[in-house]
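Technical note accompanying the year-one report. For the benefit of new consortium partners, we illustrate the data format agreed upon in the data management plan: each record pairs a sequence with a structure-token string. No post-processing was applied to the example shown here.
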Amino acid sequence: MDDPARKQLMDQQERFAVGMIGFSVEHDPEFKTRFLERVCGLKDVSKTDGWDVLEEPDNWGDLVLKHPVSSSFLVIEFKIGAKLEEHQNPSMLRFFSPAKNGECAGCGWEIAQIEKREKWKHLRFVTIESSASWKKVRQASPKLVCVPREWRHFLREDVLEKESTIESKVYDCLANFGVQTFVARRMKHMKLAKDATKPLAILSGVLDHFSVEFRPTLMRDAGLQWLGFFLEKKDFPAITKIVGPDGKVTGWFGYHPGDPEGPRLCVELYPGTDRQKQWTLKTLKRDLPNARLREPRDLWIEVFCRPEDSPGDMEWFIKVLTTLNK
């Protein structure tokens, strides 16, 4: 993706995360209590009812919680892939400054204006990042408490036993967005050392079957939850003829988390046009009539197999790729 597309994706992910967390605060009392106590540092009112939840009411906060009974006004700013901007960062002077030259006013300044109008007694601004980017507030404010928090503060010590249903779904979704804290939370106490190198050996064996020499560039898209190799045009000419990709990459094969279906073996194909997509689908249905197919987005097509249905991981990858590369 280019920079604008990457920024748009991060914005959409953050917006969705805010919606999920706001929904959970409203509908899961246990989640609300933990969120207010552990993430926001509000213990006195964490178990009380009567919280109003607002999502993105303006440019001065992603999630706003109001509690008229205790006169508490809470603003939370979430960051998944992006960094805090100066007007969102309490360690910067601009956080407390009005708008200038068409730029956004500082979040601290905006909160102060709301306090003047609505007469809140307790104000709090919380930032949530993968790693807190600030520690000290630039200028003291008697009513506004600013708190740097990290995504890890959401987690329980004994995650698997105590997460509520809603909480678990929120964390799984955040893991899919690439927030490493939530990716790793289910890995605690796992012992994988004996088998850790086997997936790479299997994938390399598939390449070797097609006389393709492993190159580090084939793995440049590896992520926290998936592991696989790209299929480049020069290595798989027959597949490339079917798929007709735009660039030098025809597809990808490897292991994928597969939400919501669960973990799976996967071959992805990247047709260059809608017409090529239809031709690729027609070929797949003809040559692999029993294969499971999925069209996640745009021109991307998946052929996948659940682990329990596989005759063997290497055997399944080789069967699919051989069928298409004849």
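Partners are asked to follow this layout when depositing records. The domain at 198-324 is CATH 3.90.1150 (Aspartate Aminotransferase, domain 1).
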